[in-house]
Amino acid sequence: GSNHFSDMGQYSGEARAAVDYLYNLGVTKGISSTQFGPELNISRADFAVMVYNAFGLSSSGSYQVFSDVPAGAYYSQAINALYNRGIVGGTGNGMYSPSLNVSRQDAVCMVHRAMRSIGWSTGNGNTSLLDGYSDGRYVSDYARSDMANAIWRGYLPTANGRLDYNSPLTRVDMAQILHRVLTY
User: Fold this and answer.
1) Which of 6, 88, 91, 113 is most buried per CB count within 10 Å?
2) Which of 16-20, 50-54, 122-126 is the least confident region?
3) Among 16, 13, 1, CA closest to 171
4) CA-to-CA distance for 128 and 24, rounded, in angstroms?
C-alpha cells in the first residue's frame, strides 16, 4: 500500500509510488488524511495548482486574468502564472472555468507546455502512434502531437487499447503522469 493513503492498496506499485512521491513533494494532497481518492476527477483549477507545484513555477504577476478566477482563490496564483507562461488558456469569454474537469488530452498538453516553459525538450510526437488506439483518430488537432509524444515517452497511462483522450483526468492518472515526467 501507500505510505500515506489507505485507499491505494488495490493499485499497482507504480501508482502507489507515484502518489507518495507527489505527496512528499507537496504537489498533491489527499482528500482526507487517510484517503487519496484515486478515481476522483480533477478540476481545471486543481490541475493548474498541481502543475504549478510540480514544475516549481513562480508567480509572474498578481493581476486577475480570468473573470471567474477570483484574486483570493487558492488556485488564482497558479492559473495566472500558467497563463502568463502560455501553459493554459481560457474556455472563452474571459473565463477559465476552474470547476470543470480537466480532460486527459488537455492535461497532457498542459504538462508538455509546462515542460517547454522551463526549458525541457519535449520534441514533436509522431501522430501515427495515435493509430494504435481505437479512439486515437478522434484526439483533437491541437493535442495530437502532445498526446503522441506522451505515448512515445510513456507518460500517459492507457488501458484496453484506448486513450480516453476526452475523459476526465483521474487523480491516480494525474499522479502517474506527473511522476513519470518528473522521474523518467
Assistant:
1) 88
2) 122-126
3) 16
4) 37
The Cα 82–Cα 87 span in angstroms is 5
Name residue, grid cell 478522434: 138
Other beta carbons within 10 Å of 50: 26
Q: Which three cell numbers stand for residue 132?
A: 494504435
Listed in sequence order, the DSSP H helices in 1-156 are: 13-25, 44-54, 76-84, 104-117, 144-153
Distance CA 85, CA 79 (A): 10
Q: How far is it, in rounded angstroms, from Cα 153 to Cα 31?
A: 30
Residue 23: all three cell numbers together: 505527496
pTM over 0.85: yes
One DSSP character per residue, 56-67 reads T------S--ST
User: At residue 168, what are phi and psi to the nearest 5 degrees?
Assistant: -65, 145
Cell numbers describing residue 137: 483518430
Terminal Cα distance for the chain, rounded: 22
Residue 128 vs residue 63, higher pLDDT: 128
Q: pLDDT, tens digit, for every residue of 26-47?
A: 999 999 999 999 999 999 999 9
Inter-residue contact 104 to 156 (CB < 8 Å)? yes
Cα 119 to Cα 53: distance, rounded to the nearest angstrom: 16
AA identity, residue 15: A
pLDDT higher for 88 or 64?
88
